[in-house]
Amino acid sequence: MSHIFIKTIIVLAGGILQGIGMGLFLFPHFIPSGGAGGIAVLLNYWFHIHTGLALWLVNSSMLLVAVKYLGKRVAVWTVVGITMTSASIAFFEQTVIIGNRNLLVDFFCGSLLLGTGIGLLMRQSVSNGGVGVIALIVAHKRSISPGQPLFWINCSVFIFTAIVIDWKIILLALGSQWIATRIVNLICQLNFYPSYTLSWRKK
């Protein structure tokens, strides 16, 4: 019971930190936090759907597609994490107002918080959702490392987001991903991409 309690606290904390990084620092500048984040930014830009809700919809739809690859247990924990992330984004975007924003400060703060949140989730073998689950399917079908399709899917979303909104976004998005990945590595003490492995198929 204590193990479940501790895991719940860590997963909730990881989701909250992700939400703060995205909602308070990255999304106000339309900086995607990843492939799913890029799609959420586009939905907000085109249809004015709240980014927290958009991110939850994107993550949930991808998770439903890939649930048989992740396993039901991991899927449940992932839903907890992405729900807390989306709720945190909505809360901080609506309640915390930052005046005189500085792009570089927001960029670094958001990237550090994003990486810390993802790292806490990965430490508990919980997916942070996003296109990682799609990359897992591609990797399984082609018998390749999930890192390769994950990289190309994210880059494709970043490029498309940059074309639609602003070209500087791709540089900021890639830079944010690099910083976040370094933080994840420090927390998990292993590479980011191998965290998406087929060992998650345990039921």
In summary, what is this structure?
The chain is mainly alpha-helical.
Protein model, in words:
Helix 5 packs parallel to helix 8. The C terminus is likely disordered. The chain starts with a helix and ends in a 15-residue tail after the last helix. The longest helix has 25 residues. It is built from eight helices and no strands. It is mainly α and 203 residues long. 75% of the residues lie in helices and 0% in strands. The protein is globular.
What multimeric state do the chains show? Answer: single chain
Order of helices and strands: HHHHHHHH
Low-confidence stretches: 191-203
Number of continuous helical runs? 8
What is the topology?
Layout: H1 2-26, H2 35-47, H3 51-70, H4 72-95, H5 103-123, H6 132-142, H7 147-164, H8 168-188
Based on the model shown, name its key terms:
mainly alpha; 0% strand; globular; disordered C terminus
